[in-house]
């Protein structure tokens, strides 16, 4: 695993994929550990660096939590990478870009060969992606390290400039150093190299002006004069001293190859590996073609790969965009081959003869020919290239085209869009002067890069708008991207000055059938399979043609369009275009085909298949058939709000719509009719979710009878799982165990893993009530494995919180807190308030048992407020309220507030009687016994404890030892009062 601090904090896996480290404090922790370069950092130092004087309530536990989060973010090696030692925490980072940078500098300084030194310094500077520790550069704990690294970078820039000057690169340096000098105007070593480069380039007046500007700045800002070496250089420039001329070196005295490659004004970002790969292909193949969509950077990569001085005859670029006339003439003109001397051509000579004359002129030469933008002349280019390569064995050709030349011996290299990290780096580098990535701007920049598909040209056009709009303004306007990116491209060819022009160029090369096919594919926002393409009227031959022309991205078995190409095509379609009707019909049929497979052994496969089509399914609006076909898929995936919105729009008042309304907290309504047993079961399932036993009971009974009459085994298993939950609410644990066990067995026979996990969850809760925590933990872990494998993230949240409850009851508060925090984060990501609430209550339980009464009260008050709102909306008491009131009562009692504690426990007792739950009644009585202990009423308190114990025993659920903490504490206090 590699770590990056030379720019925004970054982590990459061994295969180069970026590793996301979420949450600012966790990233700050990582930055702090990286600052210390493998040295231990004491916990107190980390706390001071991360929180300063505003320490959290439990500093040690909070720091441990952040360390755990960092380890999880780093993956399976996290515990080996972040290690605790007696002296503090250590990050065992095998590779950090700052250390790689330092190593390259050491190698460069130990190298005598100027060219090798320049290359090593270039490699070192290429590691920089922005200011060191960019997002934490203003923090005290990174300031010294960032300053040191920045000084090393500037020193490397100065050393590189000096060696390049010695190699004779004064013309390019004169321009490139201008920007660096403007950023660091008082660095005399840098300024001296710049003045020499200007003078050697024949720009004496600019060199003199540069010295004058430095002298005035030094006087005004520091009250100093330039140093003696710089002053001597100034005098030498004035008298045009011959000693300032370039000194020949082995690298500069030799004849340099000729070339017409243009100098690049900006650095190449994110393509270092690609440059090496293309050069390797040129070593082994005489024809290499770079393919890819418009704007992906084929030309820029080709120029970088071609900038190689190993071709004795030079490197020659022939730009074919907008080419008119004979290709052979255009190539000859760029190569400087004169017609009358080299080719013997004459006016009216046939094109074939011209081509052969050019081939004869190149015979015996060793050179690289770069043919740029061949797609609109692909057949002519293929024919000419074949002839030239056959005639001139020393010739190599590097072509760029949106499709292959398809000639023998051709090696293809597909230029892919930039990955997210490189795209972000490019965008930041091209944005307005002074722009730096920070925690606020980073999400917007990442969104821009993703929506522009990592296309370098589009990113540069978007970056040009940052000065006027800011990154958020750019991101929010991408729905109108062609208008947004209609300026900012001056200095480029006309076909690259706007995003629309880029796609216009590609569109113009397509046939009418290809254009129609592309528009049909654009109607699928999530990409599509070949089957879906054919259903939309796109045959496989057309699909293959569009892939070969780089207009469609093939990622078998799926095909997709880049977002900008899709937007271009959609703008050409009317709302009632037949392509949308064909698309909608296909996805409705697919959803209906998938529905029965979601309940049985193939549910994993079909869940994943529908996952691939989520965006396409969302695009189909107004279809009642689709709303019903997708209901169970959306339930399993936790997309309850999505299901409810679709059903409310197409089938309001149906059993499914009413059930989902309850699941998302949107209120309670009457069902128009129950068409079958499954609709009764689903509404009953929703009632149980709210704890409404009275409404759920009759529906479950009717549903089970209907399922058994139809021999619907899946329905029977689902109804039995519901009856197990119902019996648990009613305190009939024996019945709950019987129903839950039968449900699990039936689901097991059917191979429905979701159903098995639901039954296991209910049985795990029963084991928890009985104090069998080993069995409860095993059942919840099995459910967690199933939920994770099926990607049922809402279920995963519940299972994590359930494991948190078991950890709490077995005394592992740290593990309990971590389980509940993970469950709460996942629930929040799924926008599931019920799962989030379940985790919040668990965190409140952990806080109270660890003595953090303030945190416990805050969490329980939030939970009580939410439950009260639901009770008002649904008109039924919620089971969770009794536990929350009891916990708040215990908090008040521990603080010695008998009045508040009594009020809370009496309110809980009333709620427990209303819902008819004996265990909740017993809990309220135990709380009131604690109030009696505070008031010195020993006899009343002991009586309440005995009544609570008898009530629990009457339903077969005596309080397990792990849950007797409050009861034992209160009994001890009461016995003390009695004595």
TrEMBL record:
<dbReference type="InterPro" id="IPR016032">
    <property type="entry name" value="Sig_transdc_resp-reg_C-effctor"/>
</dbReference>
<dbReference type="InterPro" id="IPR011990">
    <property type="entry name" value="TPR-like_helical_dom_sf"/>
</dbReference>
<feature type="domain" description="OmpR/PhoB-type">
    <location>
        <begin position="1"/>
        <end position="93"/>
    </location>
</feature>
<dbReference type="InterPro" id="IPR027417">
    <property type="entry name" value="P-loop_NTPase"/>
</dbReference>
<dbReference type="InterPro" id="IPR036388">
    <property type="entry name" value="WH-like_DNA-bd_sf"/>
</dbReference>
<dbReference type="Pfam" id="PF03704">
    <property type="entry name" value="BTAD"/>
</dbReference>
<dbReference type="InterPro" id="IPR001867">
    <property type="entry name" value="OmpR/PhoB-type_DNA-bd"/>
</dbReference>
<comment type="similarity">
    <text>Belongs to the AfsR/DnrI/RedD regulatory family.</text>
</comment>
<dbReference type="InterPro" id="IPR005158">
    <property type="entry name" value="BTAD"/>
</dbReference>
<protein>
    <submittedName>
        <fullName>BTAD domain-containing putative transcriptional regulator</fullName>
    </submittedName>
</protein>
<keyword id="KW-0238">DNA-binding</keyword>
<feature type="DNA-binding region" description="OmpR/PhoB-type">
    <location>
        <begin position="1"/>
        <end position="93"/>
    </location>
</feature>
<dbReference type="Pfam" id="PF00486">
    <property type="entry name" value="Trans_reg_C"/>
</dbReference>
